[in-house]
Structure formats: C-alpha cells, structure tokens
Specification:
- By secondary structure, this protein is α+β, with helices and mostly antiparallel strands.
- Helices cover 33% and strands 19% of the residues.
- The protein contains five helices and eight strands.
- Helix 3 runs antiparallel to helix 5.
- The N and C termini lie far apart (38 Å).
- 40% of the residues are buried.
Length: 206
C-alpha cells in the first residue's frame, strides 16, 4: 500500500484545492485497498452514498463559524470489494488567508461498505497500521463518536454500522499560538454527519 498523507503537512499552503482533494482521497483509497477481502460468499454490493448529502455548507458555517462554498462532489465510486467511495469538498471563504497562496477547506470522505462484512472496523485499524509503518506521522488517538472513532493528526475517522468516514478542516493560517492541530473543529462536524448516517441506515432498513 502506498499513501502520501505527509503531503498535507508539507505543501498545503501552495497546492491547488482540486489536487489536494485528490491527494487526500488517495489516502482513503489506499486504506481501503489495504483491507483484505472477506473470503467465502461475497455480500451484495453496497448502495451508493453521497458525501455532500451528509453535510451542508450552512451546517459547516453554523458549526465552525466560517463561511464555505457549496460542496463539490468527487466520488471514486464503486470499488472492487463492493464498497462505494464518495467525497465532498467545501472551500473556506470567511476571510483572506495570511498567505495568499493558502488553500483552506473542509473535506469529507465516506465509505459505504457491503452489509455485514465488518469492513468499517478494519478501515479504522488501517489508520493505526499506517501510523506504525510511518505513513501517517501521528499516532491515532481515540475519540467517542459512533461505534468507534480516532483522530489521526489531520482529521477524524469514524465508523457507524457499515459506514466509515473521515473529515478534515484545513486552515494553514491558524494563529501561531496554536501550532499543534487538534480535533476541535472536526468534532463539531461529526455529530451532524452521524445523525444523517443513522437516518439513512434506518430508511434503508425499511
């Protein structure tokens, strides 16, 4: 498995947002590809999911206090293991960044897994494995959201049922007295996403 999450820490200030979105999605795609396929009879493909439906621009603005553009959907779609991958990107536009080259944004990556294969659990384990291998620079630390969640230094990964997702808020011009990234902003967004994930699961179960 090859991933490039260090890229975010080293070149955020000047990278185009579309390129950064693609690179961030590469992290999640790499994590998914690292998961072993379940042996035996394969379950049906997971239904498609739309990351942009799980979080709106208005909800982001209300939660973290900055205005953002409408979300742009960037799906990788159906995967070989039957899962479905979706991403949504919102550009932060509240105030001019200190560095005019800086790109500030919110990104949500969502994976809908085939029912009953427990792949969302292995998805979070892949973050821990990647930290041990040095691919992710920070050791993941647990948080109390969904069935399981962790902070990996640049975002929050959460699983709930057969859905897993990662959400990150990037503001490289943060005050100098806050040199260490924390999960404060992401933790304001996760409950909103989880409520919609739970409503979606309940509707699909009918």
């Amino acid at each position: 498995m090859t991933m490039h999450w260090r890229f975010v820490r080293t070149t955020t200030s000047s990278q185009r947002p579309d390129s950064m979105s693609a690179m961030i999605r590469t992290l999640f795609a790499g994590l998914c590809l690292s998961l072993p396929l379940t042996s035996g009879v394969l379950a049906a493909d997971a239904p498609a999911i739309n990351a942009c439906e799980l979080l709106s621009a208005a909800e982001i603005t209300s939660a973290i206090g900055v205005s953002v553009t409408e979300g742009r959907r960037r799906d990788d779609g159906r995967q070989a293991d039957g899962s479905y991958s979706s991403a949504c990107l919102w550009m932060i536009q509240a105030r001019p960044p200190a560095d005019p080259r800086a790109r500030r944004f919110v990104i949500l990556n969502v994976m809908q897994w085939p029912e009953g294969r427990d792949m969302s659990r292995r998805y979070l384990q892949a973050f821990r494995d990647s930290a041990e291998q040095g691919v992710i620079p920070s050791k993941p630390s647990p948080r109390k959201f969904g069935d399981e969640s962790l902070w990996w230094g640049d975002g929050l990964a959460v699983r709930k049922g057969d859905v897993s997702f990662g959400v990150s808020v990037f503001m490289p011009d943060a005050p100098s007295n806050q040199p260490v990234r924390t999960s404060v902003l992401e933790e304001k967004l996760v409950p909103i996403i989880l409520r919609k994930v739970e409503r979606r699961a309940a509707a699909n179960a009918i």
